[in-house]
Automatic annotation (TrEMBL):
GO cellular component: mitochondrion; ribonucleoprotein complex; ribosome
Name this protein carries in UniProt: Small ribosomal subunit protein mS33
Compartments where located: Mitochondrion
Keywords: Mitochondrion, Ribonucleoprotein, Ribosomal protein
InterPro entries in UniProt: Ribosomal_mS33
Organism (species): Elysia chlorotica (Eastern emerald elysia)
UniProt record similarity statement: Belongs to the mitochondrion-specific ribosomal protein mS33 family.
């Protein structure tokens, strides 16, 4: 191989991102690692978990329109309603005991 051909092969390898002949095994390994697609751009890595937040929002909208029945949410709302009937809910700001005393004393 002539000097010119060797030099052209070297430049070609540099331009097109190929490993130059005569490099060590470690350098070839590093070049292979850098040549693969990054993990954050892999389809399987990025979409490993389903989009739960979007699914929950969709079910919430369906429930609002009466097209989906969420029995657990119905139960929670019923418990809140029953607590309100028994007077067990927290008062709103300005409607507590101290505020009522202050209003009674001020009036």
């Amino acid at each position: 191989m002539s000097e010119y051909a060797r030099r052209m092969a070297f430049l070609s390898a540099r331009i097109f991102g190929q490993v130059v002949k005569g490099t060590s095994y470690r350098n070839e390994k590093i070049v292979k690692q850098l040549a693969i697609k990054p993990v954050h751009k892999e389809h399987d890595e990025v979409n490993y978990y389903p989009p739960y937040m979007k699914i929950d929002l969709a079910f919430e909208n369906l429930r609002y329109h009466g097209l989906f029945r969420d029995e657990h949410q119905d139960f929670k709302e019923e418990m809140i309603r029953l607590r309100a009937l028994r007077g067990k809910v927290k008062p709103k700001k300005g409607e507590g005991k101290r505020a009522m005393k202050r209003k009674a004393a001020g009036s």
